[in-house]
Amino acid sequence: MFVELNNLLNTTPDRAEQGKLTLLCDAKTDGSFLVHHFLSFYLKANCKVCFVALFQSFSHYNIVGQKLGVNLTVARERGQLVFLEGLKSAVDVFFQTQEEPHPLQFLREANAGNLKPLFEFVREALKPVDGGEARWTYPVLLVDDLSVLLSLGVGAVAVLDFIHYCRATVCWELKGNMVILVHDSGDVEDEENDILLNGVSHQSHLILRAEGLATGFCRDVHGQLRILWRRPSQPTAQRDQSLTYQYKIQDKSVSFFAKGMSPAVL
Amino acid sequence: MLDSLLSLGGLVLLRDSVEWEGRSLLKALVKKSALWLVYHDFFRDPLNWSKTEEALPGGPLGALRAICKRTDPGPVTIALDSLSWLLLHLPCTTLCQALHAVSHQDSCPGDSSPVGKVSVLGLLHEELHGPGPVGALSSLAQTEVTLGGTKGQASAHILCRRPRQRPTDQTQWFSILPDFSLDLQEGPSVESQPCSDPHIPPVDPTTHLTFNLHLSKKEREARDSLILPFQFSSEKQQALLRPRPGQATSHIFYEPDAYDDLDQEDPDDDLDI
Predict the structure, then answer these.
(1) CATH number at residue A189
(2) Chain B residues with CB inside 8 Å of A164's CB?
(3) pLDDT digits (tens), chain A, 266 positions
(4) Which of A241, A214, A205, A210 is nearest to A225 (CA)?
(5) Residue B145 in contact with residue B182, Cβ under 8 Å?
(6) pTM of the model
(7) Which of A160, A233, A242 sits opposite B88 (nearest CB)?
(8) Helix, strand, or coil here: A193?
(9) Most A CBs within 10 Å, among B199, B208, B210, B213, to test the A interface
(10) Quick check: A238 contacting B, CB < 8 Å?
(11) Residue A102 within a domain
C-alpha cells in the first residue's frame, strides 16, 4: 500500500468507500504497481479478497506483497484471500477431469461463449458465510488483467457481461468493491480492447490511468498517473474531477509529484 | 429547453462520454417527467444466467416490444439505460426497428383507441460504437443531447429536429443536485475555475540552489539602464549620420625582418619553378 497514493485518492483502509468499481488502465507503461497497491490496501482493510490473477504467478504477487507489508500465503490459509492462479489453472482444465465446470472452462470450447463459470467461481468465493460472525469487513474482487481474456479468445461483449454480473453481485448486492486492470493498446488498432476499455470505463466510479511519458523513458520519472472521478457534476465542485501526477517507483514505495516538479529536475 | 425535452415526443438520444457521464441527467429527466414509474429491473440478471422463472420472456427487447402493445391513452416516457447495452447485444437493425415502432406508436393507423404521445429517452455511450450504429440511431432521433463541459461544469448541446422545420441547436450549462433535480445555469462560473492547483503550494525554484540568482538593487538598476549593443537608439543614429573626422581607419605597422621575402607572386615560397 502506497501512502502517497492514499493521500491523493483521499482514502485510508478504515474509511474506504464501498460499492465502487475502480478501473486501472495502463498505456505504454506497466501499471501493475497499482494492482499491488490495491491488493495490500484491501488486505490491510480486513476485506475478503477474491483475486483473479491471470497475468502473473502467485509467488510473484507474494514477493511484492511482502515488500508492501502483507503475506499472501498467510492470508490464503486463513481464508481472507481466494486466489485463482490463471497460469496454473489453465493447465488443470485440460489435464484434470472435474464434475463441475472449471472457472476457465471457456478454454476448452471452440468458440468461447460466456464467462458464466468464472462468475460463479467469484460469487461462490465472495458470498457471505452463514452461521459464523462476520470476520471480514466487505468483499473485494481484483482482476489482473482483463485484456488477457481477450487474447484467450473471449469476445469483448462476453467480458463486459462478466463485469456487469460481477458488479451487480459484488458492488450492489454485497456492497463490496471491484478493482479491474485493463491494458490500453494505444496506437495499435485493437477494436475489441477499445470496446472493453470504454465499456468498463462507463461502468466505473474511479479511473486510474498510468501513462508512459510522451518524450520516452526517463530514469527519474517513470510515468504519469491520471486520476478521474466519475460522478455527477455538482454545483459546487468540492473536489476536482481529474488530477494528473507524475511518479517514480522505488523499491518499497512510489513517490508522486506534480508535473515537472520531480526532485531530480529542480 | 433542457427541461422541456420530453414534451416533444419521439426518440431523445442522450450521448455521453467517459469524462462526462449522462446517467445522472437521465435520472433527473425521469424524475422531472414521471408521475407514475414502472421499473423493469434488468440490472441483476440481464442474460438470465440464474435461470429463474421471474425473468421476463425475451429479455430486455421483449419487454420493449411488450410496451408497443399497450393501450393506455396517457402520454408515456420510456427511459432506456442504456441503449449501448442493447446495441452491443442485439443487431443494430433489430434495435432500430423496435425503437421506431415504440416511438411512432401515436401515428399508427388502424388503432381504434387514441394512444398518447410516447417519448423514448435513451442513454448512449458514444465511444463504444462505430459511426454506423451511432449515425443510425441519430437519424431516428428527434432530439439529440450531447454532454460535454469545461472545468467542472457540465453542458448539454441540444439538437432538435422538428418535422417540416429547420433543426435548432442550443447549449445549456447545468448541474445535478444531490436529490437528482436539474439546476440550469448561465455559464461556467468564475469561482469554480481555480487559478492554481490547491493541492500543490507554489514552489519557488530559486530557494535551494547552490548559486545566486537574485539581484541586488544596484545590479537591477544597472541592468535596467543598459543599452543593448544592436538596439538602434537616437545616439547611434546621430553617430552614423555625422562621421567624426578624428576617427580614421585603423593602421597596421609592419617591420619586415631579415628572412622575410615579400614576393607577391609566391608569398608562401613553395612553388618549385
Answers:
(1) 3.40.50.300
(2) 46
(3) 888 888 888 888 888 889 999 999 999 888 999 999 999 999 999 999 999 999 999 999 999 999 999 999 999 999 999 999 988 888 888 777 766 778 888 887 777 678 888 999 999 999 887 655 668 889 999 999 899 999 888 899 999 999 999 999 999 999 999 999 999 887 778 888 999 999 999 999 999 999 988 888 888 889 999 999 887 665 555 556 788 999 999 888 899 988 877 777 76
(4) A210
(5) no
(6) 0.78
(7) A160
(8) helix
(9) B199
(10) no
(11) yes
Whether residue A36 lies inside any domain: the answer is yes
Q: Helix A58-67 to helix A32-44 angle, to the nearest 10 degrees?
A: 70
Q: For residues A132 and B232, what is the distance between their CA atoms, to the nearest angstrom?
A: 91
The verdict on residue A220 lying in a domain is no
- Tell me the C-alpha distance between B60 and B65, whole Å: 9
d(CA A154, CA A112): 5
CB B1 within 8 A of CB B158: yes
Q: Does A192 touch chain B (CB under 8 A)?
A: no
**Residues in A touching B18 (Cβ below 8 Å):** 198, 201-202, 207, 228, 230
What domain count does chain A have?
A: 1
Q: Are A164 and B46 in contact (CB under 8 A)?
A: yes
Place of cell 593602421: B251
From first CA to last CA, the distance across chain B in angstroms is 102
Residues of B in contact with A161 (CB under 8 A): 46-47
Is A230 at the interface with chain B, CB within 8 A?
Answer: yes
- Domain contains A123: yes
Residue B10, burial from CB neighbour count under 10 angstroms (0-12, 13-18, 19+): buried
**What residues make up the domain containing A133?**
1-10+18-211
Distance between B117 CA and the closest CA of chain A, angstroms: 30
Cell numbers 517513470 correspond to A222
- Which positions in chain A touch B200 (Cβ < 8 Å)? 258, 261
Three cell numbers written together for A123: 460469487
Which chain B residues are within 8 Å of A236, Cβ to Cβ?
Answer: 192
Distance CA A11, CA A39 (A): 15
